[in-house]
Design a protein that fits this description.
The chain is an all-alpha fold. The protein has eleven helices and no strands. Helix 9 runs antiparallel to helix 10. The protein is elongated and about 80 Å long.
């Protein structure tokens, strides 16, 4: 979810002094960034960015506050310093006339909503993407990609480049290339590289299509494909589930 859509959601979240939906729809990028809700979005995003860069939580608030104090002057921080209490303190300080945005219930919901949006980019609790911070679905897709490399990639690479020339070695090499390409694309998607999602989806689709083309080729050349067909059926289910997850995860992130 981009920052502008997040600000719109925070505006809709108001329970007092609600903004009409038609007015929200007409707000442009400049108008949205000038809204007081943009302050909340910036605070939460800043916290997650600092956390992803390895800052301790106490240091994060000091860094954010140091930047704020240069413009607004120094103020004592809340004693019970959390992201929620810090956001409420900043809203009272910078937008004193917006009483609706000082309410604890509103701030709590806004911080949770903004944090969920940021976690899709920075990982849970602001931790950089890694095995310990990745969602279970990401781990499952990564495990599938590793399995494809181990079985399909290395196995077919050995057959295609082996001392004993395999019949139609190009088929083995093509399957090996797809396996390694799939793993690279999934890794790029997890690291949120540019075009990582498109590459992961394309390679997962190619894994399904080329797998069945290889089965068809084996039938045509008279090879025994009974076990291979069964294995490709399982592989198709896993690849399709991974493809659906990658598509749904990024669709939710844009929503």
């Amino acid at each position: 979810m981009d920052d502008l859509n997040l600000i719109r959601l925070l505006v809709r979240l108001r329970t007092r002094d609600r903004v009409p939906e038609e007015s929200i729809a007409q707000l442009g990028a400049t108008d949205l960034r000038a809204r007081p809700e943009a302050t909340l979005a910036a605070i939460v995003r800043g916290w997650h960015e600092f956390r992803a860069n390895g800052y301790a939580e106490a240091d994060i608030y000091r860094e954010i506050e140091a930047r704020r104090s240069r413009e607004y002057g120094a103020e004592p921080l809340p004693s019970d310093l959390t992201l929620e209490s810090f956001a409420r303190y900043r809203m009272r300080l910078e937008h004193p006339a917006e009483a609706a945005l000082h309410e604890p219930e509103y701030v709590a919901q806004a911080v949770r909503l903004a944090s969920r949006a940021c976690e899709r980019e920075f990982g849970p609790h602001g931790e950089p993407p890694g095995v310990r911070s990745m969602p279970a679905g990401h781990l499952a897709v990564l495990a599938y990609a590793v399995l494809v490399v181990a079985i399909q990639g290395l196995g077919n690479l050995g057959k295609g480049l082996g001392i004993r020339v395999a019949p139609d070695a190009w088929v083995n090499l093509a399957l090996a290339v797809i396996a390694f390409g799939l793993a690279a694309a999934v890794f790029a998607w997890i690291q949120q590289a540019r075009s990582g999602r498109a590459a992961a989806m394309a390679m997962l689709a190619a894994e399904i299509a080329l797998g069945w083309l290889a089965v068809a080729h084996g039938r045509y050349t008279g090879e025994g494909m009974g076990f291979v067909e069964w294995a490709q059926g399982i592989n198709t289910l896993l690849a399709a589930a991974s493809l659906a997850y990658v598509y749904r995860w990024n669709a939710d992130a844009r929503a």
